[in-house]
Specification:
- The protein is an all-alpha fold and about 1350 residues long.
- A hairpin with a 6-residue loop joins strand 1 and strand 2.
- The longest helix has 28 residues, at about 120-150.
- The chain is globular, with a radius of gyration of 40 Å.
- The termini are far apart.
- About 40% of the residues are buried.
- It comes from Poecilia formosa (Amazon molly).
- One of its GO terms (cellular component) is nucleolus.
- It holds the Pfam family NopRA1.
Length: about 1350
């Protein structure tokens, strides 16, 4: 059956169903039911077949022949057409089903008491209603997921409304006496609630939870406890499923009314499912703990089930009220005894003790002190006995963590005397490493007693060595060893071991032997051993009984795994780190004991060496130099082979003897040089690398601009190597020396900052010149002339060459070997016309750039490539600037003769140049580079390559010009300086220059729709955010200096939405994309309309190409990198968005504004809503950060709170409210709690939102005035924390502050109980005074 036949078939079946229903009374009972059931089943089968339908291709030869030519062009589009047709057919067919009057009218007709016209008897009517409702419900279950996927749920909206009405009607009529089984209405509700409107469903669940208690619970058949009734189970199931879906969709379903109803249910019945749901809700929304009654905590404590105690732990972590209630519960002796006797409470005790370390001004501190004192008396001795006994695997971690927290909070040295004396003996045992968590806590407690602390340190060091020895002997297989725990002990050993006297000789020797035996491939052990050798072998007195360094070196090099580790050349991170650690150990041993140097080691070291600038190779080169310094003759290694070639040569030499013809030739040496690494070495030559160490110390070379130093050869090895193979008595293939870029690397060494490197390079060139004169090959004369030109152009001895000229000579030398290339003729023409190179100019730039030959494009590209690769330092820039090269490039780029490819090349040259600070100043001030960039971007035809190149240029230009100035700038636009630093010392760029940068950035932002990649978006957003921050700092400085400044250029809504849309499309965030697209279509934003379709098409092409090429592994790495970049992008995006503000005309009401004004006003309102929603969501997801929160609050106060209509829209969005409350909760309850100033700032904003919303309780003014009184400074912080409980409860939707008042009552009760005790601190007195004042005003 074809796709087009399905709608006809479905309509025919519906016609039969309609006729059957109309004549249902004429049938007898069984035939009528069977006939209707058969028709409904047929309809259901057809719908199922339609949804799973797949178009089959025709097998007719004639059809195949007719389509043979078109398949080539339609193979991508044809499946899309079939898919599109299928979607249309499915929507049409399901629309005809669910819009059919018969099905619409009879669905839940009996439950709604809304029967269509009929002549049926009551019994037949019930049978017809029941069967039709059941079958229609089955159809809805099958079709709803497909309609949801196709975004056509409106076809079944009438059925959803019927389900809702039927359920509400049943609650009204039978709410007080629920049935024992689900009715048809609630069966439909449980099956279809996921497709109902969330606000209606939320209201329905609230109605369920507000039913009388006897309607939600019923007596249990198995015991005295009550259990959930049918309605209770329905409410819980809907909450569980919808809450999980809302968490995934960044929405919130659980309200304050739901939590209140769940709390009542939890107090009334025993339901594991209820405990599990509450645990899930608190885990995903921790701020919900503030909305749960403290009686729930007591109920969970009495039940003592795992889920119940987990709920208690979350309540303690996130609510001050629950912490106070728990502390008052612990004060009862019976409860404290239960805590100490039951192991199930151990995780709970651990949680409380961790939370007790945070300051909580909202409750009396005296209560916590007494509880900690009682816990110390009841638990500390038992904890100590368990720790010094056999720790169980299931509770060992919680026990040690709880003991550490208890010792830190309430114990003194005398309380832990037993642990101090006996714990080192148990630390030696490798069975349970958790005990080591107590070491730092005990060390802190002994800080006042220097002698005891020193004794404790020595005992821990001895225990660490013995524990590691035992662990090594116990877990001989390194892959199965507890490496993380051993690593922690090794780090502690490095910190605590101060001298050789701290450990016994036998323990040290055993540690070294067993470590080398069983942990030879563990980099942590090898690094620790290297560092400890400095301590243990520092003085000659204690070295006699220790393992001699020569023996240690022998043990290291004769190990069975030595060769496999040292010769490993893989790039895996773990293996590379092990090799590096082993080389460091060998270097340390050789430096401390030079007598271990043996010529036989040299072969292995050369085999392990890679001649690169990687850390391990640099250390191996240092090791080879140590052998040279200690009188080891290397005469037979003058032609050095390295890597695997050294091993092969050694095998051959050992087998056949040291005959002359078996010596390695220069060709063998040059063959080891990899072309790609040599090219990279030429282009990224390490100019700061020194061949002879300064001050006797050898430093490792590093360069942040190079991603992987292992891709560069080390000139400190290559130059002596070239010198050795270019000796007069050696034979060398000069052509190969040039073709393998050896000459190029040598010439690049002439640009080194180290005079010794340059001297070595000049020596190598002199030797090569002698060999070149006697050589015979075709390109000999051109190379000789090139070297003569270079020699004639050098004015003084050991002259430093500009980097760009060194690159030029290197490229020309390669070009001399390719006579078939056009550049061969052009370059030879120049060399033959000049006797020497002018070191003050780029050779023949103007002739090559403005060439008029047929191959002028090749010449222009060649010289631009030279500039791009050669301008790397100030010397090269000055040389180009002296020739006015940059003015030429800028002028030519603006001419019609410049195509897009050349323009991108010119931009890359400029990007390379602006790494030099002087170039930034000259190009921006004298050449108008920023205005030129705007001109480039404002072209009508602009490609992604051009936009990406301009973004790179802007990023480099801005941060080079900024230099060190940003370090003096605060994050939120204010300089750090007015108070911390004199104004004259604060340096900012000139405001006009900053404004130019901003204009360029905003011009680029309009072209982000061209599809920039994640890396370019990250650079652009980072640059734009930095420009805006620095502009704020400059405005602040100018304002303080009373300078006249123009009003700053604001960001527009379109520019801001473009950035958000670009980020969302690269992140594949469908929710944000849909919201931006809807907003752009609503307001007819041309710049954003239609972008979604373009991106979907390009994504499809990219996916097809990737699948065809089979590069899935590379794509997965790229995707991971892009995700990381886009995650970091959110920080920079937020720093941009805080500088956008809505422009609203507040002088006139919206209705009085003209049409255009009203559109702009509504656009600003909608944009604010979207940015607020996005900012809150990522702030909550990314973990609490005070600086980012403060930036957002500053923007919220400026952009949102001032505008009533925006606030009204935000307060109607449940997702915004939930995220705002979560951020508010994190500000007060996060482990890294915010400062008092941030808490005050946030509280002021929340109070304004609360007052703008209205519906405040009568005590609002009393509570706010009591908590925010300025009369007593000691009441400030407690008042803020107390007020946060009140704000959170009211903004969550509560009409009264019952939970807040219950907390106030608890504080007052605890205060009165201790009035006759010891004096309270100022904060304790303050919290009590605030609560007493509120209670008095209430009464």
């Amino acid at each position: 059956m074809s796709l087009s036949e399905f709608p006809v078939l479905i309509k025919q079946i519906l016609l039969y169903i309609k006729s059957t229903v109309e004549s249902f009374g004429t049938f007898s009972k069984e035939p009528g039911d069977a006939f209707l059931r058969t028709l409904m089943e047929m309809l259901q089968d057809v719908v199922i077949k339609l949804q799973s339908f797949e178009e089959t291709t025709s097998t007719d030869p004639a059809v195949e022949n007719s389509q043979e030519g078109s398949d080539l062009f339609l193979e991508l589009n044809e499946p899309q057409t079939i898919e599109c047709n299928k979607e249309q057919v499915v929507v049409s067919a399901l629309g005809s089903v669910f819009k059919h009057p018969c099905l619409e009218q009879w669905f839940l007709a009996l439950e709604l008491a809304a029967l269509p016209p009929h002549s049926l008897k009551p019994v037949a009517l019930k049978r017809l209603c029941a069967q039709l409702t059941e079958r229609i419900l089955s159809l809805l279950k099958i079709s709803a997921p497909a309609l949801d996927k196709l975004n056509h749920l409106e076809l079944i909206s009438g059925y959803m409304a019927a389900v809702e009405r039927a359920a509400l009607k049943e609650l009204v009529e039978r709410g007080s006496r629920p049935a024992k089984t689900h009715s048809k209405s609630f069966q439909a509700l449980l099956s279809l609630h996921g497709y109902m409107d969330s606000s209606n469903l939320r209201e329905l669940v609230s109605r369920l939870l507000l039913l009388p208690q006897e309607s939600l619970i019923c007596p249990s058949a198995e015991g005295p406890h009550s259990e959930l009734s049918v309605y209770g189970h329905v409410a819980l199931q809907i909450l569980t499923e919808c809450y999980s879906a809302s968490s995934q969709n960044q929405n919130t379903f659980l309200t304050q009314a739901h939590l209140h109803g769940l709390g009542v249910l939890l107090l009334s019945c025993s339901s594991p499912e209820l405990d599990a749901f509450l645990l899930q809700a608190l885990s995903s929304k921790p701020d919900s703990a503030r909305l749960i009654n403290t009686d729930v905590l007591l109920r969970c404590l009495r039940r003592s089930r795992p889920d119940s105690l987990a709920v208690v732990s979350l309540l303690l972590q996130n609510s001050s009220s629950h912490r106070l209630r728990f502390e008052m519960w612990c004060e009862e002796p019976a409860n404290m005894e239960m805590l100490s006797e039951t192991k199930a409470f151990l995780p709970l005790i651990n949680t409380y003790l961790k939370v007790a370390q945070r300051e909580d001004p909202a409750r009396p501190n005296e209560v916590q002190k007494e509880v900690l004192k009682a816990m110390k008396q009841a638990l500390l001795s038992k904890f100590s006995q368990s720790i010094l006994g056999n720790l169980s695997e299931d509770h060992g971690v919680h026990l040690v963590e709880a003991a550490a927290s208890l010792i830190k909070l309430s114990a003194d040295v005398n309380d832990i005397r037993g642990l101090i004396n006996d714990l080192p003996d148990f630390l030696q045992k490798p069975e349970r490493f958790e005990r080591w968590n107590l070491v730092d806590i005990i060390t802190e407690k002994l800080a006042d007693s220097t002698e005891e602390q020193e004794k404790w340190r020595r005992s821990v060091v001895a225990a660490a060595l013995k524990c590691l020895i035992a662990s090594y002997c116990r877990s001989k297989d390194q892959t199965a060893s507890p490496s993380d725990q051993e690593e922690g002990i090794l780090k502690r050993l490095q910190q605590l071991l101060k001298s050789a006297e701290d450990v016994s000789v036998s323990d040290w020797n055993s540690f070294v032997k067993n470590g080398l035996k069983y942990r030879y491939c563990n980099q942590h052990f090898l690094n620790t051993l290297s560092s400890l050798l400095e301590v243990m072998h520092g003085s000659a007195e204690h070295q006699k009984e220790l393992i001699p360094l020569s023996s240690l070196h022998l043990m290291t090099t004769s190990h069975s795994q030595f060769l496999s580790v040292i010769l490993d050349s893989s790039e895996e991170s773990n293996k590379y780190q092990v090799k590096e650690a082993l080389v460091s150990l060998l270097l340390c041993l050789v430096e401390k004991c030079p007598k271990v140097c043996n010529i036989n080691h040299f072969i292995v070291l050369l085999a392990a060496y890679g001649a690169t600038l990687s850390t391990s190779d640099q250390k191996l080169l240092m090791l080879l130099r140590q052998y040279e310094r200690h009188q080891v003759s290397l005469l037979k290694f003058q032609s050095l082979l390295w890597g695997p070639a050294a091993v092969e040569h050694h095998k051959t030499r050992k087998t056949l003897g040291a005959s002359l013809w078996k010596q390695p030739s220069s060709d063998d040496v040059l063959a080891l040089l990899k072309a790609d690494k040599m090219v990279q070495t030429v282009l990224k030559f390490p100019q700061e690398r020194r061949i002879i160490p300064q001050d006797g110390t050898e430093q490792l070379y590093s360069n942040d601009a190079v991603k992987n130093l292992g891709d560069l050869y080390d000139p400190c090895f290559l130059l002596p190597l070239f010198s050795a193979i270019l000796r007069p008595e050696c034979v060398i293939d000069c052509c190969k020396f040039v073709s393998c870029h050896a000459l190029g690397v040598t010439v690049m060494a002439l640009s080194s900052f180290d005079p010794n490197v340059r001297a070595a390079a000049y020596h190598v060139l002199a030797c090569f010149y002698q060999h070149l004169e006697g050589a015979r090959f075709r390109e000999k004369r051109q190379l000789l002339y090139l070297m003569d030109s270079l020699k004639n152009g050098i004015p003084k001895q050991n002259q430093k060459l500009p980097f760009v000229l060194a690159v030029y000579i290197s490229k020309v030398a390669q070009q001399m070997l390719r006579p078939e290339d056009h550049m061969y003729v052009a370059l030879n023409r120049f060399l033959l016309s000049h006797q020497s190179l002018d070191l003050r100019r780029v050779p023949e730039f103007f002739k090559l750039f403005y060439g008029f030959d047929l191959e002028h494009k090749v010449e222009r590209e060649w010289i631009l490539n030279l500039l791009q690769e050669g301008i790397s330092d100030g010397h090269s820039y000055n040389l180009c600037s002296h020739q006015s090269i940059f003015q030429v490039l800028l002028g030519f780029s603006s001419s019609p003769l410049c195509n897009e490819y050349i323009q991108v090349q010119i931009i890359k040259v400029l990007c390379q140049a602006v790494h030099v600070p002087k170039a930034v100043y000259d190009l921006t001030k004298s050449c108008g580079l920023l205005s030129w960039m705007i001109q480039v971007v404002d072209k009508k035809t602009l490609t992604q390559q051009t936009v990406s190149a301009v973004i790179d240029l802007l990023h480099t230009l801005w941060f080079t010009s900024l230099g060190e100035k940003e370090k003096k700038v605060g994050r939120n636009g204010a300089t750090l300086s007015t108070e911390e630093e004199p104004l004259c010392l604060v340096k900012c760029l000139p405001l006009p220059l900053i404004s130019e940068f901003l204009c360029v950035a905003l011009a680029i932002s309009r072209h982000l729709r061209l599809g920039v990649k994640a890396a370019q978006l990250s650079l652009f957003v980072q640059t734009l955010g930095s420009v805006l921050v620095h502009r704020g700092s400059a405005l602040h400085v100018n304002k303080q200096a009373d300078r006249l400044t123009l009003h700053p250029q604001p960001l527009s809504s379109t520019e801001t939405l473009s950035l958000l849309f670009c980020w969302a499309s690269l992140s594949h965030n469908s929710i944000i994309l849909a919201q931006v697209q809807a907003l752009s279509e609503k307001h007819k934003i041309k710049e954003l309309m239609g972008l979604g379709k373009h991106r979907v098409r390009s994504k499809g092409r990219l996916t097809f190409e990737r699948t065809r090429d089979g590069t899935a592994s590379e794509d997965s790495k790229t995707v991971e990198q892009e995700e990381s970049l886009l995650t970091g992008c959110r920080v920079h995006l937020s720093s941009v968005f805080v500088y956008w503000q809505p422009v609203l005309q507040l002088s006139e009401p919206p209705s009085a504004q003209p049409g255009g004004k009203l559109d702009a006003r509504q656009l600003a309102c909608d944009t604010t809503h979207l940015l607020t929603k996005w900012s809150l969501r990522w702030l909550v997801e990314d973990g609490y950060d005070e600086n980012r929160t403060k930036d957002f609050l500053t923007w919220l106060e400026k952009a949102v709170i001032k505008h009533r209509e925006i606030v009204d829209v935000l307060m109607l969005d449940p997702g915004v409210k939930a995220d705002l409350l979560q951020l508010f909760h994190d500000t007060f309850e996060a482990p890294s709690r915010a400062s008092t100033e941030t808490c005050q700032f946030f509280t002021n904003i929340m109070i304004r939102l609360l007052e703008m919303r209205g519906q405040l309780p009568e005590l609002h003014r009393v509570i706010v005035s009591a908590c925010m009184s300025d009369q007593d400074p000691s009441r400030h912080e407690p008042g803020l924390f107390l007020l946060s409980l009140y704000i959170h409860e009211l903004l969550s939707g509560s009409s009264s502050a019952d939970l807040f008042l219950s907390h106030v009552t608890l504080v007052t009760r605890a205060q009165r109980k201790r009035q006759k005790g010891s004096k309270s601190t100022r904060i304790q007195t303050a919290i009590g005074a605030i609560c007493s004042e509120i209670i008095e005003m209430k009464s």
